[in-house]
């Protein structure tokens, strides 16, 4: 069996987070009424999906599978993204996009 790299957990977490972002951004793109917002959000969603697959592929190359984990806030983000009553700006703010901190910690990205 292949020795487990110390960074495997990070690869896994990034793959999962990018895949989740693709999910809620795609829903947001489907619900916005603005064509310009839809174009940008759709592009970003595709990019996030590519990232998820790239990290999963690297894990596979190393001999490991992505391990699914429960994200307690995933359904909340999906509800915000799919809302037809929130504006795009409200969704942006509710999802914490563009914020210098995430849950009180600096955003590592």
Written overview of the protein:
This protein is mainly α. It has helices at residues 8-31, 35-61, 74-82, 88-94, and strands spanning 101-102, 105-106. The protein has a two-stranded antiparallel ribbon. Strand 1 and strand 2 (105-106) form a beta hairpin. Helix 1 (8-31) packs antiparallel against helix 2 and helix 1 packs parallel to helix 3 (74-82). The radius of gyration is 16 Å and the shape is elongated.
Task: Give the topology.
Elements: H1 8-31, H2 35-61, H3 74-82, H4 88-94, E1 101-102, E2 105-106
Antiparallel strand pairs: 1-2
Helix pairs in contact: 1-2, 1-3
Number of strands: 2
- Describe the strand arrangement of the main beta sheet, using strand numbers: 1-2
The helix/strand series, from N terminus to C terminus, equals HHHHEE
Outline the biggest β-sheet: 2 strands, antiparallel
Low-confidence stretches: none
Helix content: 55-70%
- Form type: elongated
Q: Which percent band covers the strand fraction?
A: under 5%
Return the structural class. Answer: mainly alpha
* Average residue pLDDT: 92
Radius of gyration: 16 Å
- Number of H- or I-type helical stretches: 4
What kind of oligomer do you see?
Answer: single chain
């Amino acid at each position: 069996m292949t020795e487990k790299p110390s960074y495997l957990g990070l690869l896994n977490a990034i793959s999962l987070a990018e895949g989740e972002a693709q999910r809620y951004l795609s829903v947001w793109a489907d619900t916005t009424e603005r064509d310009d917002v839809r174009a940008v959000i759709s592009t970003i969603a595709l990019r996030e999906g590519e990232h998820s697959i790239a990290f999963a592929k690297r894990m596979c190359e190393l001999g490991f599978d992505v391990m699914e984990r429960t994200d307690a806030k995933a359904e909340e983000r999906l509800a915000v993204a799919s809302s037809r009553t929130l504006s795009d700006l409200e969704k942006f703010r509710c999802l914490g996009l563009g914020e210098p901190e995430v849950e009180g910690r600096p955003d590592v990205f």
